[in-house]
């Protein structure tokens, strides 16, 4: 269905000035506002007259409408149409409740809650990633780390415009509309293409004098300190999210992700929630058994070595590993033993080892018994 002419909706001439348009809207609002007229049809009419006022009260939108009719606003979303109109002040001036403000009311009932945001993608700033190196002890017991993050903040002097006070001027290419309209005729048909102005990038204004504080960039390079809480059990790749600490965006800032990188440990090797450590033991301890001390995350641990332990034997010490992230309990510690062969033996040690070797050979039947040798 074709839309009604906005001037006809408000009942004003096309030459009407701002005051006449506002007065016409006030008169119609007093007639159709739900405070004055409970008829649902009146509420629908309120939507129509408000849209007409939103366009005709804005010089840029009005120029597009006057030039191209409703087609000139085809690239505008419903939010774009109503942007810039302070209905709250208007209704307060009219002595009516503000049904177009935040929190619901007529605006939500007419356009549907959230309708002003569903048709336009929220322009969010870029997310940032920061890699934080931590130790195995940090992720074993939990820790707090302070990081200094470089980030851009909107310049408070120019509010992000990049211009000094009074340093903006209307773009001469798009005449302040922020859009360029190209028409191509083919017989009785007219093809119209609307694009963002390539000079002002859709802003409608250009900078003639740059902001002295940000040098026309619209933002300042600053640093910010943040406290990162490392939870027990975290591992490389675990990310801590800081909402709104990313790059500044047109509508909302992005987020910051601090990603952990657990450094290699000089003693322990981590596998999931378990840790592994290698421990050298004397060959006498391996043969005779005994008690040794092994390193642990919370201090040295005692480990019993059974008689006849071989190189490569793995011993398990339960619940001495890494805490399970967001769960109860811990992983285990595994001790891999390596039997050391002594070097630089003294003569006495060599003699004892020779006697030991002969004794082992006799026990295994490789040498004749001592009394049998004397018989021969």
Low-pLDDT residue intervals, each spanning 5 or more residues: 101-120
Order of the strands making up the biggest sheet: 10-11-15-14
What name goes with the CATH superfamily of the largest domain? DnaJ domain
Percent of sequence in beta strands: 25-35%
The coarse silhouette is: rod-shaped
What is the count of β-strands? 15
Which structural class do the helices and strands define?
alpha+beta
Give a quick account of the main beta sheet: strands, pairing sense, barrel closure: 4 strands, mixed
Which CATH class of the largest domain?
Answer: Mainly Alpha
Total count of domains: 3
Count of helical stretches: 12
Distance between the termini: 127 Å
Residues in helices, as a percent range: 25-40%
Q: From the 3D structure, determine the CATH topology of the largest domain.
A: Helix Hairpins
Overall pLDDT score: 83
H and E string? HHHHHHHHEHEEEEEEEEEEHEEEEHH
Rg calculated over all Cα atoms: 40 Å
The assigned CATH architecture of the largest domain is Orthogonal Bundle
Describe what you observe in this structure.
The chain is of the alpha+beta class. The protein has three domains: about 5-120, Helix Hairpins (Orthogonal Bundle), CATH 1.10.287; about 125-155 and about 215-265, HSP40/DNAj peptide-binding domain (Sandwich); about 270-340, HSP40/DNAj peptide-binding domain (Sandwich). About 30% of the residues lie in helices and about 25% in strands. The radius of gyration is 40 Å and the shape is rod-shaped. Mean pLDDT is about 85; it is low at about 100-120.
């Amino acid at each position: 269905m074709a839309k009604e002419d906005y001037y006809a909706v408000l009942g004003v001439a096309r030459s009407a000035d701002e005051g006449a348009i506002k007065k016409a809207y006030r008169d119609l609002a007093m007639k159709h506002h739900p405070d004055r007229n409970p008829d649902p049809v009146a509420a629908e009419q309120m939507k129509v007259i408000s849209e007409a006022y939103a366009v005709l009260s804005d010089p840029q939108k009005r120029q597009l409408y006057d030039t191209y009719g409703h087609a000139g606003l085809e690239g505008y979303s419903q939010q774009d149409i109503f942007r810039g109109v302070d209905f709250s002040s208007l209704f307060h001036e009219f002595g009516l409740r503000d049904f177009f403000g935040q929190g619901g009311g007529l605006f939500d009932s007419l356009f549907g809650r959230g309708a002003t945001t569903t048709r336009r993608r929220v322009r969010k700033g870029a997310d940032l990633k920061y890699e934080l190196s931590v130790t195995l002890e940090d992720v074993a017991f939990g820790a707090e780390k302070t990081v200094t993050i470089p980030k851009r903040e909107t310049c408070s002097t120019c509010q992000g415009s990049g211009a000094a006070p009074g340093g903006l001027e209307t773009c001469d290419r798009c005449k302040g509309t922020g859009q360029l309209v190209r028409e191509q005729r083919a017989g009785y048909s007219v093809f119209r293409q609307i694009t963002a102005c390539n000079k002002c990038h859709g802003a409608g204004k250009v900078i003639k004098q740059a902001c002295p504080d940000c040098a026309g960039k619209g933002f300042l390079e600053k640093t910010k300190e943040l406290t990162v809480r490392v939870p027990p059990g975290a591992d490389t790749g675990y990310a801590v999210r800081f909402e709104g600490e990313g790059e500044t965006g047109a509508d909302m800032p992005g987020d910051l992700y601090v990603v952990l990188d657990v450094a290699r440990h000089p003693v322990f090797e981590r596998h999931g929630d378990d840790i592994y450590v290698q421990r050298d033991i004397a060959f006498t301890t391996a043969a005779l058994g005994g008690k040794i001390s092994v390193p642990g995350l919370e201090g040295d641990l005692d480990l019993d070595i059974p008689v006849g332990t071989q190189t490569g034997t793995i011993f398990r010490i339960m619940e001495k590993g890494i805490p399970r992230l967001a769960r109860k309990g811990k992983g285990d510690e595994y001790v891999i033993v390596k039997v050391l062969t002594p070097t630089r033996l003294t003569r006495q040690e060599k003699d004892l080892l020779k006697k030991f070797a002969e004794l082992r050979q006799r026990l295994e039947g490789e040498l004749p018994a001592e009394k049998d040798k004397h018989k021969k």
